[in-house]
Amino acid sequence: MTFNAFLSLLHGAGVTVSVSMAGIALGVPFGLVLALLRWRRVPLLAPLTTVYVSLLRSTPAVTLCLLIFFALPVIGIEIDALSAAIATLALNTAAFNCEIWRSGLTSFPREQVEAARTFGMSGTLIFRRIIFPQLWRTCLPALVNEMTLLIKSSTAIAVIGVAEITRAAIRIGAQTYDPLPPMLVATGIYVVLVLVFVGIQRLTERLYGQAGGAR
Amino acid sequence: MTEAATETRDPPVLEISGLTKTFGDRIVLDGVSLSVARGQTVCLLGPSGSGKSTLLRCVNWLETPDQGAIYLSGERMGIRKGGVVPMGNGELARLRMRMGTVFQHFNLWPHMSVLQNIIEAPIHVQKRRRDEVIAEAEALLENVGLSDKRDAFPSRLSGGQKQRVGIARALAMKPELLLFDEPTSALDPELVGEVIAVMKTLSQGGSTMLVVTHEMGFARETADKVVLMDAGRIVEEGEPEVFFGRPKTERARQFLQRYVSA
Amino acid sequence: MIRDVSLIWQNADRLLDGLTNTVILSLVGATLALVFGALVAIALMASNRAVRLTSRGLVDLMRCVPFLMLVYLVYYGLPRLGLRFDSWTAGLVAIVIYNTAYMAEIIRGIWSRLERETIEAGIAFGFHGWKLVARIVMPQIFLAAAPMIGNQLIQIIKDTAFLTIIAVPELTHAANSIQAQYFIPFATFLSAVLLYWALCMVVELGVFVVERIAEKRR
Ligand SMILES: Nc1ncnc2c1ncn2[C@@H]1O[C@H](COP(=O)(O)OP(=O)(O)O)[C@@H](O)[C@H]1O
Ligand SMILES: [Mg+2]
């Protein structure tokens, strides 16, 4: 395996990481919005969210990615492979993040909310000043755990030709007729990536205590 | 019953000699010697933490003693003939299946029904015939008054019922020796009687039993011999009339004062 | 839209063939992974330090690797070592290897939390070795593990979609080939998504039933 091949694997790793990060950056807040809709039992939207979460949790990322990439143009929304990839990961992880946020919300001590209300705080103020600062801490370990899973499922975007790690490895293997070395290097890169995330998760668990994952 | 045992030349069913066990630097058993003859019921008394459970666990070889020896009807437990090489799990199992143990917290297998709990070891450890074992198990359930709970699962039983199943499970092994570790301590007071009644019947029926208990009434009426343990040692042993009526040691008097109040 | 639906209806047998493959791959894969996972869990709980650390290392490594990477390793990598599978078998092998690690970890987790007492009762009644594990330990583990095993089965069902990349004729592959032929991506992939959804619902229903059975046995 040449140095150039190694560089293109690293480039693939860069794609994996940046697409995953974009998916996380969109999916974590979107998941919180979904969780709030369900938690506040917003009419119409809350049951829709329930369906969304159930549907997305049982949809393979590969299938979702194909759906987004091929179907959106048909209904008039042009989308390039990279955007489709990011949308796939964001929509997918949002469903799992919603469950994490929601379990944090439902286990949030009622007394604190009631106490805040006696001081005349409004609903949004209570959420911003009382609930959220504690909520994100309790949810963080589970959220990071979900990020680790997202990194692993991000390989799904290879199906629409995004040159992430696995696809880079396959291409190098096809060019050199020696698929094993680039695959082993790619595997090594993944191990490092996942270990970094597991490390972060351990750290957050130590700092903020444990919270169960949704998957 | 004691005379009957001394007349025969059989070795005692259980012979413990010079048993010592430490956990870390804590001496839990300190040279305990004790024997139970065929047909005898021996009650082991003593304050909590005195080492009674550990002694029973050593008899089962669930704990490995540091020193001393245990003989089951003359056969050395845990150590092969020659006295050095420790037994493998298979050899231990062959000795263990000759004893029946009744646990303080019942330890029934939760994934099996009452009947399955009773027939499990006779069929799969002792390799006895299934139909024969089931027939015996049903008779045992009848004896402990639980025929109607044959197909119930342990989680649906009261403590007293669980313990009676525990006893039936031990009896189904046709054991030479029955070991009881505080069989009524985890029960609500009103359920103690039903278990004690079963144990009395067993004792009178000639079973060989070593019973750790705080039920002084049971010990006084049923035991052939009472043994008092304290801090890992046997401090007094004797016939119940003597032990309860005219204890020889100061320690026994203190113990009785605390535990036999009314 | 009506044309889309009627085209899907005409090609329903292709989707169903795909679904059948997805179900077979998932069920066979999960069952084998559960069996091997139980064996690996025994290694994870072994008293021998070397056995324990080796199996721990392998399980942790497997859990760091994305499923697709393992599929590639089995399908493109193993032939270099003289092991050649067709794509369907390669997919199944990858599912089994990958999920053995996850099942082992599920079983070990529950095993280590299992109450020591019922196992000791087994030992006191003369159980040992294989029989102790098979009759006293494992049944309790499986009853407690049912929800987690169900979750893993859902994960496996979703992972089978990756196998379209090596052209295994599973559900997503069938959908993709239908949409490529008629250019009706929305209807086909949505049908596939709904079928996956239904499949996962069935698994969840199964878990619910097992839960009901397990409830009184713990
Ligand atoms: N596995 C163990 N490790 C360390 N200490 C133990 C263990 N088992 C028992 N002990 C200690 O041994 C002593 C005797 O315990 P035990 O035999 O259970 O007493 P008893 O049954 O008479 O109440 C206690 O102090 C207990 O803490
Ligand atoms: Mg005790």
From TrEMBL, chain A:
Principal localisation: membrane
Cellular localisation: Cell inner membrane; Cell membrane
All residue ranges annotated as the ABC transmembrane type-1 domain in the record: 13-201
Cell membrane recorded as keyword: yes
Any Pfam family hit: BPD_transp_1
Key words, A-Z: Amino-acid transport, Cell membrane, Membrane, Transmembrane, Transmembrane helix, Transport
Coiled-coil regions listed: none
This protein's record includes keyword Translocase: no
Membrane topology: Multi-pass membrane protein
Residue ranges crossing the lipid bilayer per the database entry: 12-37, 49-75, 180-200
NCBIfam families cross-referenced by the UniProt entry: HEQRo_perm_3TM (TIGR01726)
Protein name (Swiss-Prot/TrEMBL): Amino acid ABC transporter permease
Source organism (scientific name): Ancylobacter koreensis
UniProtKB/TrEMBL annotation, chain C:
PROSITE patterns per record: ABC_TM1 (PS50928)
Sections of the chain in a coiled coil: none
SUPFAM superfamilies per the UniProt record, alphabetical: MetI-like
Keywords: Amino-acid transport, Cell membrane, Membrane, Transmembrane, Transmembrane helix, Transport
Ranges that cross the membrane: 23-46, 58-78, 90-111, 132-150, 182-210
CDD domains in UniProt: TM_PBP2
Family recorded in the similarity comment: Belongs to the binding-protein-dependent transport system permease family. HisMQ subfamily.
Name of the featured protein: Amino acid ABC transporter permease
Lineage: Bacteria, Pseudomonadati, Pseudomonadota, Alphaproteobacteria, Hyphomicrobiales
